[in-house]
Amino acid sequence: MIPRHLTSKLLQAARLFPVVSLTGPRQSGKTTLVRDVFKDYHYASLEMPDLRRFALEDPRGFLAQFDGPVILDEVQRVPDLFSYIQGLVDEHPDRTGRFILTGSHNFLLLQSISQSLAGRCAVLHLLPFSWAEISRRNSMPLEGLGKSLPGPCPRPEKGLFDVLFTGFYPAIHARDLPPQEWLAAYYQTYVERDVRTIVNVGDVEAFGRFVRLCAGRCGQVLSLSSLANDCGISHTTARRWLSVLEASFIITLLRPYHKNFGKRLIKSPKLYFLDTGLLCFVLQIRTPEELWHRSERGAVFESFVVSELLKNFVHRGERPALSFWRDAAGREVDVVVERGDDVTAVEAKSAMTVVSDLLRPLQSWRNLTGMPDAPCALIYGGDDAFRRSGVVVYPWWVL
């Protein structure tokens, strides 16, 4: 088993809270992680029809069968169970680590937690593997991003486009599966089953078209009206379906950086897929070599950088503080990373050679902020780390 960076935070949460919930996309490794970390716990999967029926018909009896701490997998399948868990927790509020809850649908689980378990439950998220986890090393320290060169780090055996094409879902790496075949089955299950569980989507074909249109807009500022028109659906439906994709961890929306530098700023978010392998599948990219030649190459690489920075926060148990900056004149910084008072501007470029044009957005950022020495980072598709014009340049594989 590849060690997960969230493990220490998961153990800490179980020492402090009566209930710990772990959400994330299907097949991100939630069950494997909690069963490995909490080996002595009872385990029940509410995906099993008989157990789910028992929990639905007799929740008190279902919970009473466990004479110790328990892992309840896919607990959002029985929403009423949360109220009964609350009652048991309130009887003995000092007993920590009593329930470990996992679920694949973020807003269904969080809605139930906010209604019944507020203040009693730690909420953590597990995304697919990070590149650092696959490389079996610690993730890049964000406090040094844009300030210092990376420490020693072995170069990967696989090339960049092989990594992007394969993606980061654990099953592909654990069983060395052909990525496109596994992702095809994953996508089909998601569209035909999970989406209907989360929200009533009557036209599955239209939803699939919507997902493909989102993939084509990856890395772009989102126009919801344009997206809805191209898909042939209403603005309200497009907004609801976008929420479904975000809640099920297929996409993430990067909001604009709010500090006003005296210019009119773009207010709409940018859209990214959380897994580059799934993005390549939806874009119908069939091989790593095809990705190299496709016009979407830059957007796929940018998605990789955004998702790796996101995992860096999430797998530490921290709230991600990522945004982007763009003004009405079209000047843009791909990612703005905030850690307390530290703000770092990051550009993501798939090019393997660094030319001065790649650094221009970061120089504009420094001019507009009035901080000529503001930390700035360029993450690119090459293999060397160095400084250029005061910008720290990182190879893709140190993330």
UniProtKB/TrEMBL annotation:
Domain AAA: 18-134
Protein name, entry field: ATP-binding protein
InterPro entries according to UniProt: AAA_14, DUF4143, P-loop_NTPase
Domain spans labelled DUF4143: 192-350
Species per Swiss-Prot/TrEMBL record: Desulfacinum infernum
This protein's UniProt keywords: ATP-binding, Nucleotide-binding
SUPFAM superfamilies per the UniProt record, alphabetical: P-loop containing nucleoside triphosphate hydrolases (SSF52540)
Pfam families listed in its UniProt record: AAA_14, DUF4143
GO MF annotation list: ATP binding
